[in-house]
Write a structure and sequence with these properties.
Elements: H1 19-33, H2 40-47, H3 51-54, H4 61-75, H5 85-101, H6 104-109, H7 121-137, H8 141-163, H9 191-195, H10 200-205, H11 209-225, H12 230-233
Helix pairs in contact: 5-7, 5-8, 5-11, 7-8, 8-11
Length: about 230
């Protein structure tokens, strides 16, 4: 089968005109070299076109990354929403966590200032639901924003720490040999850490996000809706 010819009659790869082809190639590069090493020039070489041609489709690397995130966010299934606002917050936060956990590099990109203004409507719907549920629970709009922000910081932090921790194992799998992280500690000064030394790695590998999220949301909502003098009277 002959290869396609260019407008000048030269034999070569067909020009890329599809954004989906560009995004597919970008995902392939990210999977193999990481998003930090992805460049427009490298992507153009991967596709077989000039960098100038690629700039007709994307403005720069940041634009490309957000196009990928938009496409991915549109594929994340939105959860069935419970009737209780507190439970809706947890359901949406879990959906965000699970989506980003599968694509941790996106969580790093989304740590940039003003990221929320660049999210797609599909992703913003989860944010809207969290804010609306917090207001329905009794938060002011300002408090609802703080509730989302704190959940976001916790969720992204959890994802990035786990993504950058080498040798992670499934929750139910223990290391073959105990890892004494605190070997040699002065037990008289740090007795609890010394005692937990060979268990710390195994315990920290466990995924406790669901339980911690529930406790975190309960604390945020309780603090936000606490009335003046309520703590002293209680």
């Amino acid at each position: 089968m002959s290869r396609a010819k260019s407008a000048h009659g030269r034999v070569g790869r067909p020009p890329v005109t599809s954004r989906s082809q560009i995004l597919t190639a970008a995902r392939h590069l990210i999977d193999h070299i990481g998003w930090e090493k992805l460049t427009i020039r490298r992507l153009a070489a991967e596709i077989g076109i000039g960098a100038t041609t690629l700039y007709h489709h994307v403005r720069d690397k940041e634009d490309l990354l957000f196009l990928l995130i938009h496409e991915y966010a549109d594929q994340i299934p939105h959860p069935d929403l419970p009737s209780e606002p507190r439970d809706r917050i947890i359901a949406c936060a879990t959906a965000i966590h699970d989506g980003l956990a599968a694509w941790p590099w996106a969580a790093e990109v989304l740590t940039t200032d003003g990221f929320i203004a660049r999210l797609s409507d599909s992703a913003l719907l989860l944010v809207e639901t969290i804010v609306a549920a917090a207001i329905e629970y009794g938060c002011t709009p300002e408090q609802a924003v703080h509730v989302f922000r704190n959940i976001w910081y916790y969720t992204v932090g959890e994802i990035l720490v786990r993504a950058h921790s080498p040798g992670r194992r499934p929750d139910d799998e223990r290391p073959d040999q105990p890892v004494a992280l605190f070997d040699g500690l002065d037990a008289s000064r740090l007795p609890h850490l010394a005692a937990l030394g060979d268990q710390w790695a195994t315990l920290s590998w466990r995924d406790t996000y669901p339980q911690a999220l529930s406790a975190f949301v309960d604390g945020l909502l309780s603090q936000a809706t606490e009335r003046p003098g309520q703590r002293a009277d209680g």
